[in-house]
Amino acid sequence: MIGREQARQAISNYVEFPVARVMGRMGLTPNMVTLLGLAGAGVGAYLIGVGQWWGGGIVVLAAGVFDLFDGALARMSKRESRFGALLDSVVDRVSEAVVFLGILAYYLATGDDLGSILVYVAVIGSIMVSYLRARAEGLGIECKVGVMTRPERVAAIGGGLIIGHWLPIFMLLTLGAIASLTILTAIYRLAHTARMLASEDEN
Questions:
Q1: Could you tell me the sign of the dihedral formed by the alpha carbons of 136, 138, 141, 147, in that order?
Q2: What span, in angstroms and rounded, lies between the C-alpha atoms of 121 and 127?
Q3: 2 pLDDT exceeds 70?
Q4: What is the model's pTM?
Q5: Looking at the domain 4-202, which fold is it?
């Protein structure tokens, strides 16, 4: 059975680097690709806010794909930099928040309280998942454990929007899954970090 790391390596070899090579020939820089992803998230959020969920879902998925290529382009073109890594992380968080804002705007406009609450909890859970990894790594602990990380969230939101355009309850279920799984992942990462720190202190 193929694990996450093997699948990630296969995507890098057969998707990321070939597309990144084309982007490089077009004159795009890694930071430009990162910002194009943010622009796509903004367009997707607007479509979601006005009720065009299927279009918004497609754009959100397409924008999420850019997250694969900026790092690959940086490595391939030898333009890796600490600022580029920082910009990528910041834009990832902003892009996700913008998409959630589009969903929240729609639910507020339609008076859907449950949807609004689920969006809020999903945002908090998503922030905590990312924050705990960053804080743990700042303490020297690798913390990639758990499910519902950014790639899974992007895929879930995009798919939920496309199906939810015709079956609205599906988007509520998707948000509920994101909210619950991100909270569980945050708790798991906190426990993992505490366990690793305790182990280091013992040594």
A1: positive
A2: 10
A3: no
A4: 0.88
A5: Four Helix Bundle (Hemerythrin (Met), subunit A) (1.20.120)
